[in-house]
Structure formats: structure tokens, C-alpha cells
Amino acid sequence: ISLLKDWLDIRNEKSDRCTLLFDKMKPLFQALLPDNANGGTTLLTQIWSERDMFPKLSQWIVGGDGWAYDIGFGGLDHVEAFETNDVNVLVVD
Length: 93
Hints:
By secondary structure, this protein is an alpha+beta fold. 49% of the residues lie in helices and 13% in strands. The protein has 6 helices and 2 strands. The protein has a two-stranded parallel sheet.
């Protein structure tokens, strides 16, 4: 339960801590759930069925150097400046 509370506290952070906590929670869930947990109705089973929401997924924008010159006109600088957006940009030359 404490790992779930910790995850709730940091779920909006721009870090990998959510994924690290999920890595700690995963074996605990697997030990507590029965082998036929698919389709179950217990709260633990329902939480486990939504497990893809626990790790923090990276959002990537990939493009060439041609469009990178126009970043200021495309609004990408605003996306990067907005603190709650966790977006990575890869410019390929």
C-alpha cells in the first residue's frame, strides 16, 4: 500500500520514479494475484488490469534539421517551455 501511495504522490513528476516504483510493485502484485487474475473483480485485480498506467511513458518528437529551423514558428518552443509537458525532441541531421 505504501508503494501505491508513493506512486500517487509522484505520478505527475517529470522523472523515472514512477517506473522505478512500478518495478518494485510488479512482483508484489504477481505474488498476491491468483494465476487466473484476468477478468477478476477484486480491487487488486482491477488495479493490475490497468498496470500500463503506472510507468511514466516518454513522448518523443523526431525530425530533421530542416524543420528544426522552424521550431519557433511551429510552437514547439512553447511545448518545451511548458513545465508539465514531458516531451523529448530528437533532431537528426
